[in-house]
Design goal:
Layout (H helix, E strand, L loop, with lengths): L3 E9 L5 E9 L5 E7 L7 H12 L3 E5 L21 H6 L2 H16 L4 E11 L1 H12 L4 E5 L4 H5 L10 E6 L7 H14 L3 E6 L16 H18 L1
Parallel strand pairs: 3-4, 3-5, 5-6, 6-7, 7-8
Antiparallel strand pairs: 1-2, 2-4
Length: 237
């Protein structure tokens, strides 16, 4: 693994709030593609920081914004076994607020001297899968990956017509929270809008199968998904 520069940076969002982001990138990197990493409902925790660093090790400037900055302390990490620790923060999120966070993060990232501003993407998991989809509607991305993001089309609404890039959608076949009907609804909306996508269902996987510190982690599916994500980036970014 290359030596990484990593750490937190405070950013001022359009509404005047301060949002902390976790950034990681290879030391000495130049003309790096940028990748925004969107958290699960449990914050920019050890897992999301690890994913951010894994992406940085692949040659990206990777950055993970703390989406709960309006309601939680800096560095907030929820409890995977107690959703009540995160519910108030999830419920307080708004599309306008998330849109401001997305745009602020992208502006900061693309202004860094190490970053090629014309080669950027996003990836997100669960809550972050939805936010990654929203980011693809708002930003000039080259690729966006969304893991088990639920009702993507419902959240994006008419913005779906603005998506400029291919999408990679990953789902767990055993996920009881996200039904086949919901997945089909998302795909139909993309088809109706004439958008390019790759849609993959990992039949043996449950919700959050990519997270290696959750009970639902499926190593085989996670390994295959990671290889697919890297190939997707290699083709499009």
């Amino acid at each position: 693994m290359p030596q990484l520069i990593k750490g937190y940076v405070p950013l001022t969002v359009q509404d005047g709030t301060t949002m902390q982001v976790y950034a990681a990138y290879p030391s000495g990197g130049d003309n790096l593609p940028g990748m925004i990493v969107f958290q699960e409902a449990f914050g920019v925790n050890a897992h999301i920081r690890d994913v951010t660093e894994r992406i940085a090790a692949e040659g990206f400037y990777a950055i993970a914004p703390e989406l709960f900055h309006r309601t939680a302390d800096k560095g907030f990490e929820g409890n995977y076994t107690d959703f009540e620790t995160v519910r108030p923060h999830v419920q307080a999120l708004t599309t306008p607020g998330l849109s401001d966070d997305i745009i602020t993060t992208h502006k900061f990232m693309t202004r860094q001297s190490e970053v090629d501003a014309h080669r950027t993407g996003s990836i997100g998991f669960c809550l972050g899968g939805r936010v990654s989809f929203l980011a693809s509607c708002l930003l000039p991305l080259k690729a966006a990956a969304c893991f088990y993001g639920g009702d993507l089309a419902g959240m994006a609404g008419d913005r779906i017509k603005n998506i400029p890039c291919p999408l990679l959608l990953c789902w767990g076949g055993k996920d009881k929270r996200i039904t086949k009907d919901m997945i089909d609804k998302n795909i139909q909306a993309l088809d109706n809008a004439g958008k390019e996508y790759v849609n993959v269902v990992f039949s043996r996987a449950d919700h959050a199968f990519f997270c290696d510190i959750r009970a639902s982690y499926d190593p085989s599916s996670a390994t295959e998904a990671w290889a697919l994500v890297k190939a997707f980036w290699n083709v499009n970014i």
